[in-house]
Design brief:
InterPro entries: NAD(P)-bd_dom_sf, SDR_fam, VLCFA-Steroid_DH
CATH class of the largest domain: Alpha Beta
Order of helices and strands: HHEHEHEHEHEHEH
Low-confidence stretches: none
Number of helices: 8
Number of strands: 6
Keywords: Membrane, Oxidoreductase, Transmembrane, Transmembrane helix
GO molecular function: oxidoreductase activity
Family: Belongs to the short-chain dehydrogenases/reductases (SDR) family.
Biased composition (Basic and acidic residues): 285-303
Strand order of the largest sheet: 3-2-1-4-5-6
Strand content: 5-15%
């Protein structure tokens, strides 16, 4: 039997915080610093600064580039993608296909779901693309309950979930003062951006806890990382998903579940009605949009 997550975390803590002083202090006692406590403190502080400023950033970059890459298939055989019929969501679907994962795509348009399913299964031999049509903006409790039951049955049928990508989202079409935005649109943003992320996380986490592994990726927005005038409501809803996912990272890591929030800037998509690529709004083509999905998966186990 291998070590469980808590035992691994304990060993990491001992190796990072306890072992170095135990190794260094006996050596220091036999050197220049014997009987010079203030100079010893200064020396250790300089070493700490060098570690934080020079060595740790280099180590982190090397870890992300090489050792830190996670085999996405180690989480499970299926990935769930919400809003996976366009933009970054569809890019995730095809990236998972190239990595050898089956997918479950949840979106509101059955026609688009059928197109994605056909393209996926034709392109990636031996892999399956399951689809569920659901509008995250609807508020009918019966429809909600029916979808949740259908989703649970599908997950049990395929044998569990490895990865969840909370990608579905919406925004106001044009930048606008908060008090001028239609209340119905505000309610829709809250339902889709917040309610959808919360519901899908709550649906998938029990399956991941049962298998003691899994990953949750939230496609948030850079607009939530700084003040964004005229997109106040949208940026606030994206801040919800970002904070939820970052908190889940610590809440569920003992169960072997990794949680990652990514905060991209604008890109060409149905949401922002852009039709031309610019440096500030890239990804007009599906193969370029995959770069954002790849960046998330290469980040590995960092929150």
């Amino acid at each position: 039997m291998g070590l469980d997550v808590k035992e691994k975390n304990l060993l990491k803590f001992l190796g990072k915080h306890i072992l170095p002083p135990c190794v260094i202090l006996p050596y220091v006692q036999k050197t220049y610093f014997v009987g010079k406590p203030l100079e010893l403190v200064g020396f250790l502080y300089v070493c700490y600064l060098l570690y934080k400023i020079v060595f740790y950033p280099l180590y982190f970059k090397l870890k992300i580039a090489t050792w830190g890459r996670v085999n996405i298939r180690s989480y499970g055989k299926y990935a769930v993608v919400t809003g996976g019929t366009s933009g970054i969501g569809e890019a995730f679907v095809h990236t998972f296909g190239r990595k050898g994962l089956n997918v479950i795509v949840v979106s509101r348009s059955q026609d688009k779901l059928d197109r994605v399913k056909k393209e996926f299964e034709e392109k990636y031999d031996g892999l399956k693309c399951e689809v569920l049509a659901y509008d995250f903006n609807q508020t009918d409790k019966k429809v909600l309950s029916a979808f949740q039951e259908d989703f649970k049955k599908l997950v049990e049928k395929v044998g569990g979930i490895g990865v969840l990508v909370n990608n579905v989202g919406m925004s106001n079409d044009d930048p606008q003062y908060l008090h001028l935005i239609d209340q119905g649109l505000i309610d829709s943003m809250l339902n889709v951006n917040n309610g959808g992320t919360m519901m899908m996380s709550r649906l998938c986490l029990p399956f991941m806890m049962k298998q003691r592994k899994g990953a949750v990726i939230c496609v948030s927005s850079a607009s939530c990382t700084h003040p964004t005038p005229l997109l106040s409501c949208y940026s606030a809803t994206k801040g919800f998903g970002n904070q939820l996912t970052r908190s889940m990272f610590y809440e569920y890591k003992e169960f072997g579940i990794d949680c990652l929030s990514i905060t991209p800037y604008y890109f060409v998509s149905n949401m922002f009605k852009r039709r031309r690529e610019t440096r500030m709004a890239p990804f007009p083509e599906r193969n370029k949009a995959r770069a954002e999905a790849k960046a998330a998966m290469k980040a590995g186990k960092k929150e």
